Amino acid sequence: MTLIVEVESLTKRFGKVSAVDDVSFALEAGGIHGLLGRNGAGKTTVMQLLTGQDFATSGAVRVFGESPVENASVLGRVCFIKESQAYPDSFKGKHVLKSAPWFFPNWDQAFADKLVADFKAPLDRPMKKLSRGQRSAIGVIVGLASRAELTYFDEPYAGLDAVARHRFYDHLLTDYSVHPRTVVLSTHLIDEASDLLQRVLVIDEGKLVIDADADELRASATTLAGKTADVEAFVAGREVLDRSRLGGLASVTVAGLSDADRGAAASAGLELSAVSLQELIVRRTGGTDESERNVA
């Protein structure tokens, strides 16, 4: 097992506010990983610390076994694409793409040209005059065509419309299958990206609340529906993530059901359904109240 990113007890405070609070995790080389959470949860701060763009209050970060801070040997193997990327006032899209090979030794110009055509990216207009979506298109082109060993995408595709975002996901998955590397996607559009992810890290109020294999996480919760008395009898003593009621019917999401438990629930006349990654993360980060919600 080769660890490409190692984070130990990482904390970043701004005054009395802890943007990142005692976070620890590690990522193996290879794979598409999700750094997920609500806006303002601390995702961007984590990425800035991982790329040496900010200093930690305490804790340690190692990328390729070394600190990334002012470390050219590390940063030369990393691409960090963020929505708020700043450019010189005179820069146009063509200047961004012309300068990219200076920083990324694995740059693929032919792939970049294909992406420019697919995203209809304007190259002859100043970056500061482009729309949010057009700037996002330039960003994802650089991130994909860089083919950096470690690539961070900090929601740069959020400015794209739904069609363009899915085009980005398709290009990422297709190119990754041919040119494997380590990709970290930071996003709050969890359902859109969920099928890409192999590992999921969830940040909530600066704390790491989930660090799990994506498939295992998807299988960790089940929604049961049926007559209220039957549902409540079955879930008694179990970890309940969400509960709702409509008349004499109830729907409860529970964690930790085994195959035998699912069989027993079905035999009891309950309907079972999978929980989406987004639903699960919302419920585990306090998006809904665990107490009973009466719909009618």
Task: Tell me briefly what this model is.
The chain is α/β, with parallel strands linked by helices and 296 residues long. The chain folds into two domains: 3-215, Rossmann fold; 219-294, 2-Layer Sandwich (Alpha-Beta Plaits).
Per-chain topology:
Layout: E1 3-14, E2 17-28, E3 31-36, H1 43-50, E4 58-63, H2 72-75, E5 78-82, H3 93-103, H4 109-119, H5 132-146, E6 150-154, H6 162-178, E7 182-187, H7 190-193, E8 199-204, E9 207-213, H8 214-218, E10 221-227, H9 228-235, E11 240-246, E12 249-255, H10 259-267, E13 271-274, H11 277-284, E14 293-294
Parallel strand pairs: 3-7, 3-8, 5-6, 6-7, 11-14
Antiparallel strand pairs: 1-2, 1-4, 8-9, 10-12, 10-13, 11-12
Helix pairs in contact: 3-5, 4-5
Structure description:
- With 296 residues, the chain is an alpha/beta fold.
- The chain folds into two domains: 3-215, Rossmann fold (3-Layer(aba) Sandwich); 219-294, Alpha-Beta Plaits (2-Layer Sandwich), CATH 3.30.70.
- Helices cover 34% and strands 31% of the residues.
- It has eleven helices and 14 strands.
- It has a six-stranded mixed beta sheet, sandwiched between helices.
- Helix 3 (93-103) packs parallel to helix 5 and helix 4 (109-119) packs antiparallel against helix 5 (132-146).
- The radius of gyration is 22 Å and the shape is globular.
- The model is unreliable at 288-296 (pLDDT under 50).
